[in-house]
Design goal:
The protein is an alpha/beta fold. It is built from 11 helices and 13 strands. The protein has 2 domains: 169 residues, 3-Layer(aba) Sandwich (Peroxisomal Thiolase, Chain A, domain 1); 150 residues, 3-Layer(aba) Sandwich (Peroxisomal Thiolase, Chain A, domain 1). Helix 8 packs parallel to helix 9. The structure holds acetyl coenzyme *A. The site of acetyl coenzyme *A has 23 residues, from helix 2, helix 6 and helix 8.
């Protein structure tokens, strides 16, 4: 295989979550549920909820400013913005374009990426390809969601699961042997109905009838998604590891999508990754879809967990259905 011209990796990272915290006890006042049910079935204790008027690009702006500062680059250094989200401010323009203006990233091209909870990993892979080929030098990848606006607050089977937040990473050139080592991406559109927002697209425009049936909100066959997730989460990491000739035992940190503690535990068991090497923050944030992985990554980095050279596995799954994983060698000095 031809040698890659450049190595790509994360040069800066940041996250932001809205101030308002909603506890399980508060939810139990809205729907027939309990703190005990939510904790034991999902691992979630609380989630952050965007304030009135706060949209996904507002959260992304804060996370992006932190990522740029961490990377030591200015907004004008950014060549491309990839915004992974399923909850954009509007259908058009893209969230990426709105962010490009808010950030002052005057030279940047910008587009949204739709791969639900796998979106951040998909975004990293696209950024990596551009950097490796020398097309761009700095790509800003965002995973951000305001799911609270797309959740049916009368449906206890979904409203207890989700939260709002944003994570951002500056992807650029890193020294040889560091940064992204391998990606594995996949999809199975035959499972699309298991997790969807039925209305608001070209298939089912929003009408009074549609609104009355709550079809503008997230619908999920929880059991089907659970079965799919348990199968695919460990499997995709194994595929990525194979591509870079590493064994599961090489993983220093597993950073999985935070949808359900039981799904994470099953992937960790399959890979033989001990609990102390698994990054988990679902208790405080719930499922933030595309934001889950970058927030977990940025929070761990800021807490001084990662050492330069650590092997980190990112793994996500979600609506589509989609999945994606990435093996990388951390190329930043630790924060501690
Ligand atoms: N509070 C109390 N009881 C509840 C609640 C609730 N919030 N929700 C459901 N129940 C009830 C059900 O009605 C059911 O009652 P029944 O037995 O009388 O019918 C019972 O609890 C068990 O429900 P199950 O659906 O079997 O519960 P399960 O253990 O499967 O957990 C859950 C449900 C948490 C949704 C689980 O299936 C899951 O995590 N699935 C995967 C979700 C996921 O990963 N989504 C990823 C989305 S990523 C993206 O792209 C956005």
């Amino acid at each position: 295989m031809q040698a890659k011209p450049y190595n790509a990796g994360i040069r800066g990272i940041g996250y932001y979550v809205p101030e308002r915290i909603m506890t399980n006890a508060e939810l139990a006042k809205l729907v027939d549920t309990s703190d005990e049910w939510i904790r034991t079935r999902t691992g979630i204790a609380e989630r952050h909820i965007a304030g009135e008027g706060e949209a996904v690009t507002d959260l992304a702006l804060r996370a992006s400013e932190r990522a740029l500062a961490d990377a030591g680059v200015s907004a004008e250094d950014i060549d491309l913005i990839i915004f992974a989200t399923l909850t954009p401010d509007r259908i058009i323009p893209s969230a990426a374009c709105t962010l490009q203006d808010a950030l002052g990233a005057k030279r940047a091209a910008a587009f949204d990426l739709s791969a639900a909870c796998s979106g951040f990993v998909y975004g990293l892979s696209v950024a990596s390809a551009f950097i490796q080929q020398g097309v761009y030098q700095n790509v800003l990848v965002i995973g951000a969601e305001v799911l609270s606006r797309f959740v049916d607050w009368e449906d206890r089977t979904t409203c207890v699961l989700f939260g709002d937040g944003a994570g951002a990473a500056v992807v650029g050139r890193v020294p040889e042997g560091e940064g992204f080592l391998a990606f594995d991406l996949g999809s199975d559109g035959s499972g699309g109905d298991a997790l969807d927002i039925p209305a608001g697209g070209s298939r089912l425009p929003v009408t009074g009838e549609v609104l009355a049936e709550h079809k503008q909100f997230i619908h999920m066959d929880g059991k089907a998604v659970f079965r799919f997730a348990v199968k695919v989460l460990g499997q995709t990491v194994e595929e990525s590891l194979k591509k870079c000739d590493l064994a599961p035992s090489a993983i220093d940190w597993l950073v999985p999508h935070q949808a359900n503690q039981r799904i994470i535990d099953s992937a960790a068991t399959r890979l033989g990754t001990p609990p102390e090497k698994v990054v988990i923050n679902i208790e405080r944030y719930g499922n933030m879809s595309a934001a889950s992985i970058p927030v977990a990554l940025a929070e761990s980095y800021e807490a001084g967990k990662f050492r330069r050279g650590d092997v980190i596995a990112l793994a996500g799954f979600g609506a589509g259905l989609t999945w994606g994983s990435c093996i990388m060698k951390w190329s930043k000095e630790d924060k501690s």
